[in-house]
Amino acid sequence: MKTIKNAIQSEINVKKSQFICSLVPTETKAESKAVIQKFREQYSDATHNCTAYIVSDGEGFDDDGEPGGTAGKPMINVLRKNELHNVTAIVTRYFGGIKLGAGGLVRAYSKSVMEAVGEAEILEIEEYDVYKLIFEYSNIRIVDSEVRNNNLEVINKEYSDKVSYDIVSKDGRDILKIFEKYSGKINTGFKNKQFLENK
Questions:
Q1: What is this structure's pTM?
Q2: Residues 6+ apart with CB under 8 A from 196
Q3: For the residues 76-85, what does the mean pLDDT come to?
Q4: Under DSSP, is residue 91 helix (H, G, I), strand (E, B) or coil?
Q5: What's the pLDDT score for residue 191?
Q6: How far is residue 136 from each of residues 107, 133, 160, 183, 192, measured CA to CA in Å?
Q7: Is the pLDDT of residue 19 over 80?
Q8: Between β-strands 163-168 and 122-135, what pairing exists: parallel, antiparallel or unpaired?
Q9: Which phi and psi (to 5°) does residue 195 adopt?
Q10: What is 129-164 written as a DSSP string?
């Protein structure tokens, strides 16, 4: 699976209309909708802000006033063709006075997203189970030793009243079983699934 590393923006002009495509990494529908709202506010003077997104909990698109099927659908088709996930595309159009027709709009919105995808840094990602370990500071040495010995990856560490590690096993092993012998010392629980870069 693929995604983009960072947000990127590109611009094309078609018969005096300006098309600005913004690609933003997003993981959920809620995150996509928040990003879309932000861009609609930022470009509130634009003629249209058309959108498409593919994220972990679904996908969607919106023509934002353009004739049905001429903007959002071509945009999401470009994302699908490039096998991109966890990404939101917003194409902002400033009308230049010359109508493009349905075919011209499809080509313009498709090209706008294709140009941005071509400029983006693409990452290969995979979905993994991520577990959260919560333990006392006195058990850091035990946990770190098991992490090293079992070739696990810690993707996040937090230090407050207790220590918290987010751990992923990239070979599919059940992390709960690795730490079950420390029951009482280490609180182990399934956290969620995350898309991580496949290095």
A1: 0.73
A2: 125, 126, 127, 128, 155, 168
A3: 95
A4: strand
A5: 63
A6: 58, 10, 10, 13, 22
A7: yes
A8: antiparallel
A9: -90, 120
A10: EEEEEEE-GGGHHHHHHHHHHTT-EEEEEEESSSEE
pLDDT above 90 (res 37): yes
Task: Tell me the two tokens of residue 147.
Answer: 């992490």
Q: Which residues contact residue 150 at a Cβ distance below 8 angstroms, ignoring those fewer than 6 apart?
A: 169, 173, 178
Identity at 25, one-letter amino acid code:
P
Give φ, ψ of 108 to 5 degrees.
-65, -45
Q: What is the mean pLDDT of residues 84-110?
A: 96
Task: Please give the domain boundaries of the chain with CATH numbers for all domains.
Answer: 2-120 (3.30.230.30), 126-197 (3.30.70.240)
Cα separation, 197 vs 185, in Å, equals 31
What tokens does 188 get? 């182990």
